[in-house]
Amino acid sequence: MNTPLPPMKYASVLVIRCFKKVEHFADWITGAAGPVFVFLCWVLIGGGGFAFFDVVARDLSYLGLLVLSPLLTLVPLNMYGQYYLVTHVPPGYPAPKASGKEDKDIKWTMAMPWSVWSGEKWGFTKRERPLTSGGVLGSWGGDEGPGETGRRVRRCRKCDGPKPERTHHCSVCKRCVLQMDHHCPWINGCVGLYNQRHFVLFMVWLSLGCWSVCGLGYRRFINTFSYRAEWKAYTPKIGFTLVYVLCIAIGVAVPVLASWHLYMVSKGETSIESHDNAYMEKRAQQEGLIYLNPYDLGRRRNLELFFNLGSGGYSPYTLLFPLVIPPASNGWAFPRRPLPTTTAKIPTSSLHAPELAEGLLAARTHGDHAEDGLSGYVMGDDGSLTDDDEGGGGWMD
Ligand SMILES: [Zn+2]
Ligand SMILES: [Zn+2]
């Protein structure tokens, strides 16, 4: 029987459709405005750098220049270098473009030891990776290390391409992105597996740059308000006032963002996963279980793997230069934490959240303690919750 939709139901369908339209428009605007944002960012960091050397560094004594020389060279080198890299190195994709057109930027994700941007060119070589499976370092998805994952790879609902664990579909880029963190208009692209290192380091060096302007240019900033003060710089006084005020604003906002990202990295999660993990943690708590993030190998190891340092990685000195350092994972398999050996309290009631049941099953089959599967811990599996893009929350639909 064909009954017409009740008015309330009809209205809600209409509202949802409207939201979808607005969402699509927002995605389109984000994509279209991307190049403007990148241009603006170059103008801002370029103008800021020029004003600093023109107005502030001009006043420094020889001794001051000598003492501050590491700051005066490394900050601009890394700020411009990392921004160039974060806008050129692609985030990494599990499949080629759907249009069949070749990816021009894909070369950045391959080994280029001859390139001036490669660590190898400057003598930074990767250390031998001991023990990648089992033990405290965590085991890779499969037992054979990256690439040999024994798990079935899902397909993307939107682009129908392969969707390895931690991959998400970006509705602005219109394709799947490996270990997607978020879509960033300031770089006109996604932040993911291959460029997140550059993204975080750029924020850190940008913060240092802003603080340098604020700390060393304080007297000059005061001078801009006085008509009598001597002004030899090419930069007009009003220009420097503007640069200084922007540096205060950016020097507060960006370090907060950078710290937040580093905090998430230290927990072994991306921006998208942090939403999911918070949700799962709450649900698990309600069931009397303890939720574990499978990619959390401990604060130190998470940071080491993210920057690809420490055992099996590169030298920590690579953080001081704008170099392309390949990620520790290939994006198809990631090291996972083992289940704790201590047994937590078993919940007596049956599970009310079906999402947790899936994680429990995963913990039982993937954990080292298969026999005592119901140990009170529940491990997230393969990010099956967030099947959506940017910012997470896709579990709601
Ligand atoms: Zn996709
Ligand atoms: Zn994107």
Automatic annotation (TrEMBL):
**How is this protein positioned relative to the membrane?**
Multi-pass membrane protein
* A Pfam family annotated for this UniProt entry: DHHC
Q: In the UniProt record, does the keyword Transmembrane occur?
A: yes
Domain comment (free text):
The DHHC domain is required for palmitoyltransferase activity.
Might you give the EC number(s) for this enzyme?
A: 2.3.1.225
Q: Where are the transmembrane segments?
A: 32-53, 60-80, 199-218, 238-263
Q: Please tell me the species this chain comes from.
A: Kwoniella newhampshirensis
- Could you tell me which residue ranges the Palmitoyltransferase DHHC domain spans? 155-275
Annotated PROSITE patterns: DHHC (PS50216)
Q: Give the main location.
A: membrane
UniProt-annotated stretches for the region Disordered = 372-397
**What is the protein name stated in its UniProt record?**
Palmitoyltransferase
Family affiliation: Belongs to the DHHC palmitoyltransferase family.
Q: Which reaction does it catalyse?
A: L-cysteinyl-[protein] + hexadecanoyl-CoA = S-hexadecanoyl-L-cysteinyl-[protein] + CoA
An example GO CC term for this entry is:
membrane
Entry keywords, A to Z: Acyltransferase, Lipoprotein, Membrane, Palmitate, Transferase, Transmembrane, Transmembrane helix
Q: Where in the cell is it found?
A: Membrane
GO MF annotations in UniProt: protein-cysteine S-palmitoyltransferase activity
